[in-house]
Specification:
Chloramphenicol Acetyltransferase; 7 helices; seven-stranded mixed beta sheet; five-stranded mixed beta sheet; 19 strands; 3 domains
Amino acid sequence: MGRYIFKLPDVGEGTAEAEIVAWHVAVGDHVKEDQQLVDVMTDKATVEMTSPVAGTIVSLNGQPGEMAMVGAPLVEFEIEGVESAAGIAAAKPAEKARPAPATTVTPQPVQDSAERPLTSPAVRRRAADLGIDLQAVPGTGPGGRVRHGDLDSYIATGPAPASARTPVTPRDGVTDVKVIGLRRRIAEKMQEAKRRIPHFAYVEEIDMTEIESLRAHLNATKNPEQPKLNVLPFLMRALTRVLPEFPQINAHYDDEAGVVHRFAAIHIGIATQTSNGLIVPVVKHAETLDVWRAATQIAQVAAKARDNTASKDDLSGSTITVTSLGALGGLASTPIINHPEVAIIGPNAIVERPVVRAGQIVVRKMMNLSSSFDHRVVDGADAAAFVQRLKALLEHPAMLFMDR
């Protein structure tokens, strides 16, 4: 028997340290060669480390969320064979390295207490939004884990009869969830954006009745291969028509150099909620897309973000961001600008409500459009004029398709 020390390797591009994101083994485990050991995150990527040897784990160095220096011991093994008894080896990164800083990462599993059902943060948030007690939802996943499908089934069938329910007992205790990996990167990015950018918000209500009628007609008459349209492709179309009139809004502000970079191309970031957190994939050259191709591109980049297959190019280069909570959009929001951009647009929920038209009270489909701007480079009057131009196009959707 002998000991084998597994050190953090140089994972490329001169990285001096990496964050430990998730351990996949524990002390006492017997592992095989090439078995996954740990995920680490650098500024460039999340890398899965695999074992270079077969043996029993004697010690693990570092907790999730801690930084490890290149060359520092990560895992100590007890192995059989004299030839390797005193071996010291560098770790082998797995063949696959996923792009990360603000994008993908294997989420750190958190072991819920016995009082708390096993599930993902996304399912837990969804249940909270719907007012559903997850303890009442039967889980079909490993160890009784509650999945989205379980939640869907519970919503469809309703709760079990009172006679079949287990008695509800008071819950107690606190679960501490360490902010690490992608969640920490998101937190740092949001903090940096709020610290560096003097935001100001602007909210305008928009009558979406006509565009909703057009959308319903297009969806009812579309070809089978065409995607179903929601509001976002029309908003993107409006942005591509208006932004050339307001080049200071389709821009990045390099506050350290004191330079505003105004872009001719319109690359629209689509803020997307995933199980790993909020990720912003990008629809490139939106100015070249009609509503059908825009809908296709939105669906494709969002799917890549959700299943962790988005490339670095898919997740970078946006010049302005759109953030939407869909049916959960609420009345208004104050979105945080995606630094170094200078503006973000947030459509809210479309609701029917009474409004006055030509002296008559009528029911119209109304939506509040929320927006935030960097007040260092975008004046309030320009922001208001920009949103009013969007409003005019969305309220008269034929104008979206007319030649300039």
